[in-house]
Amino acid sequence: MTTRTRILTGITTTGTPHLGNYAGAIRPAILASQDANADSFYFLADYHALIKCDDPQRIQRSRMEIAATWLAGGLDVNRVTFYRQSDIPEIPELTWLLTCVAAKGLLNRAHAYKASVDKNVEAGEDPDAGISMGLYSYPVLMAADILMFNAHKVPVGRDQIQHVEMARDIGQRFNHLFGNGKEFFTMPEALIEESVATLPGLDGRKMSKSYDNTIPLFTSAKDMKDAISRIVTDSRAPGEAKDPDNSHLFTLYQAFASKAQEEEFRADLLQGLGWGEAKNRLFQLLDGQLGEARERYHQLMSRPSDMEDLLLIGAKKARAVAAPFLAELREAVGLRSFVNQAAAPVAAKKKAAKAARFVSFREDDGSFRFRLLAADGEQLLLSRNFADGKAAGAVTKQLQSGDALDVRTEALGFSVWLDGVVVADSAEFADEASRDAAIEALRVALTPLED
Length: 451
Ligand code: TRP
Known about the structure:
The chain folds into 3 domains: 5-102 and 137-195 and 303-344, Rossmann fold (3-Layer(aba) Sandwich), CATH 3.40.50; 218-299, Tyrosyl-Transfer RNA Synthetase (Orthogonal Bundle), CATH 1.10.240.10; 355-450, PH-domain like (Roll), CATH 2.30.29. Helices cover 51% and strands 13% of the residues. The protein contains 16 helices and 11 strands. The strands form 3 sheets. A 6-stranded antiparallel beta sheet has the order 6-7-8-11-10-9. The protein is elongated and about 120 Å long.
């Protein structure tokens, strides 16, 4: 029994992680995964990436960079389940089951889709111009990600809250339609880390690739230094008092500093520390904290097969959860084996027949024969004579092989044929009905049991 909280989140693999991603999502997720009560599932949402990006090179590079970033950042793959979405074939399969219960009207209301439609309308285009079914169905794929593993908590940015709500909606509908009182899916909750700073970028707006104002994370010390040198500050000269509370450089420093470091930096700025020196101090702080991870990152990137191995192990762990669960869901919607299905009553018979057995014996003339006895000891068949035990054994073996039985009736009895010769006979029955019942019992007795 596990009472651990299952935390699950996906990272869309279209870009290179920057300092803002690290402070806002990666670092908190890695910390959260260290909690003994957390059962974390973190994955590369590379199917989602295909919705936004049709550049194979970029998809591939981003998958590797993001995997290396999380690993270098200290993610412990023995503790968490870390995998690529596209290594889990159960995800697209569940996506389809959910697509069939998701209301189109619900998806019409998805923010990302609506924003694209609005943009088209504004531009005087067809409302759905350039909108793929992937974009439209994005929330269903995400619902499958979440519901597949029955996640309790889903750490996401604010823009993703609606998607988690849709996952609840779709999951609930599935539960209602197919659960028969059973709740297949856990209702997930979006987890918004209020305390996590959204880092400002070089220009003071939120750090984001779309603003082109990011500080690179692990590319190189020089890149980081160059970016820091471009942080926009006011024009106060060295020696003039600075205002830390209105400086995004200070906010960036704060996000990585201890309380003591922060206070010292604040005091120095108030006393007129020059911006050039302040940038230098920020670089020293970041480099001190991230330098080792940067080295690990480059090591990982230079040995992609190590990462491949780790991710395949992760996929195996994830599939050990997903595959049996999906099998249950397939059953629930009616995608069932014909065999198990038709056999519900037959299966019971098969069990009873399990005790049917062959008994061999030797005649006085040295020939070998066998009887097939039903569970209750009644004789179903008596074989003809065989020259040796091996020949008799071969016949019993073939009768149990599951191949179609060649049964031929003769008056009130029947015989069993193999390769054109009679190998065994039944007794004589009182009437045709009992003869036919015996033939049926024989077939059941000789149907191999599935293991
Ligand atoms: N859509 C999310 C994003 O862009 C990524 C994502 C995909 C995800 N599947 C998920 C997040 C499941 C949480 C849970 O940020």
